[in-house]
Request: fold
Amino acid sequence: MAAFRPLPALALAGGLVLVLSAAWHAWNSPARRLERLQQEVAPKGGRVFQTTLNNQEMAFLLQDCKLYKLEVSRRSLRRELVLKPDFYPFAFCFKQSIERRGDSLEVYLLMQALGAGGGNQGGGTYRSTDGRTWQ
Reply:
């Protein structure tokens, strides 16, 4: 029977810890977090959009005619509401889009009222060059 050798066992355990740690960091990377969020919101009509504005990497979530700026790190994914149409009772998000146009980000939101003859009740085209101030 071979004698127990603690040094190789410790090296094996240390190697296992390093492999698991690397896998955990890859699983929780900001890019992977955004990918999982896109998979979560896509069936509901949402979209995660990544772009560069003023030489800064930015990520946004467009869902239900609301635009959220995303702050992504290894530990968290925070949403900050930056744009939404005015409130109107009994209205729903009819159409939404987000795209880069030149140096600015362009968001189109269209709310429509429920019921017969429900017309457009809010939204429009919004532009921003920094992701915070919208025109």
In short: The first helix runs from residue 6 to 27.
